[in-house]
TrEMBL record:
UniProt keyword Signal, yes or no: yes
Residue ranges crossing the lipid bilayer per the database entry: 213-232
Record's protein name: Unnamed protein product
The organism of origin for this protein: Aspergillus oryzae (Yellow koji mold)
Taxonomic superkingdom: Eukaryota
Signal peptide limits: 1-16
Keywords: Membrane, Signal, Transmembrane, Transmembrane helix
Length: 361
């Protein structure tokens, strides 16, 4: 999964750059295009022709051997010729976008929840999709790790709502719906970040367009680290099912069965057993907690530095991010509640209904 994530980041970096200065958000599009074609046509042509200008004013501040030699003079010219009210509007939009990573982390999931889904429930692909569809992670306090056995205990079932468990093949529909929501959230985040990269300009790295995409993808590494930390602290116990002489499926089939099987329908549900703390676990736990904070800081730095976006467009964009986070959180909450309910043996309305035919070790 790490290799896949790195390939996605590399593809994002390679794909975003060619469309810079070609597309803009709706509200300021006409003003920006007018400035480009009338007030900053010389700098714009230098950018299109990849020939840095020779204005001493710009060469004093920008290294002509770097990519910013093409983009920074153009951005400076555009800002100089835009009205003050437009620049004030862009500054307000930067405040909204800068607060977005913190707000998303408050609504999103922490690394322990996604690690439970990936490691205990045995659904790592769904867990990764939910992590990428929610590009902010709630940080945990360093060196304080939650009690996973308590999180999977029956107390939450006694005090909370019971999830209905329809019989028959309903589990297929539930599983398909979970993947549709998760992949849809990922697609929404990818397109939103791609549009941010090509329709806005980062004021501290004007030649780089992939920073929003990098911010969105890096969160996957934080969640993968959280899964490793859980594996170093808890051992997953999966009870064998069926007759002892029955030939068990190979590892890929067992993984595939668990991956497509909603946690509510897991038979028998997995259990966890504590492992003695190690220095490696403490290191991973600290790195994950610190990485979550650094990720929020990086997202704030990137999003607050974006230029040429209005408050109206920023609010619409924030709504897209919030929708993805809420949907991913809902799927994850359903999975964790289903895992607790299956573990407690309380199947609610589904007691006595047909059990799932797919079983795995």
């Amino acid at each position: 999964m790490r290799i896949l994530l790195l390939l996605l980041i590399q593809a994002a970096v390679a794909a975003a750059a060619p469309d810079q200065f070609q597309h803009w958000y709706k509200q300021f599009r006409s003003q920006i295009e007018f400035v480009l074609n009338n007030n900053c046509s010389e700098q714009y042509q230098n950018y299109l022709n990849k020939t840095p200008g020779f204005d001493p004013e710009y060469q004093l501040w920008y290294d002509p051997t770097k990519g910013s030699a093409l983009t920074a003079p153009l951005v400076s010219c555009m800002l100089s010729n835009l009205p003050e009210n437009v620049k004030a509007n862009m500054a307000s939009a930067g405040v909204i976008l800068g607060l977005l990573p913190t707000m998303l982390s408050m609504l999103g999931s922490n690394t322990v929840d996604t690690a439970i889904l990936a490691r205990v429930a045995g659904r790592p692909f769904l867990s990764l999709c939910l992590a990428l569809g929610s590009p902010a992670v709630l940080p945990d306090r360093p060196f304080e790790y939650p009690n996973v056995k308590a999180l999977l205990g029956v107390d939450g079932i006694k005090k909370g709502l019971t999830i209905p468990k329809p019989g028959g093949r309903t589990w297929i529909l539930i599983s398909a719906l979970e993947y549709i929501v998760a992949l849809g959230a990922v697609a929404n985040i990818v397109t939103a970040c791609y549009q941010l990269g090509i329709q806005c300009i980062c004021n501290y790295a004007t030649e780089v367009t992939a920073q929003p995409l990098i911010w969105a993808f890096i969160v996957g590494l934080v969640h993968i680290g959280g899964t490793i930390a859980l594996s170093l602290r808890y051992r997953v116990i999966r009870s064998p099912v069926g007759e002892t002489h029955t030939v068990q499926p190979n590892w890929f089939r067992r993984y595939l069965i668990r991956e497509i099987n909603p946690s509510l329908y897991s038979t028998p549900p997995p259990d966890v057993d504590e492992i003695e703390e190690s220095y490696l676990f403490l290191l991973f736990s600290w790195c994950v907690s610190t990485g979550a904070v650094v990720h929020i800081l990086y997202g704030t730095m990137v999003l607050s530095s974006l230029l040429f976006i209005s408050v109206q467009d920023a609010l619409a964009l924030a709504g897209r991010f919030l929708a993805s986070v809420v949907c991913c959180r809902a799927v994850l909450a359903y999975e964790l509640a289903g895992l607790r309910q299956a573990k407690a043996g309380n199947m609610g309305n589904g007691e006595g209904s047909e059990t799932l035919e797919l079983r795995c070790k």
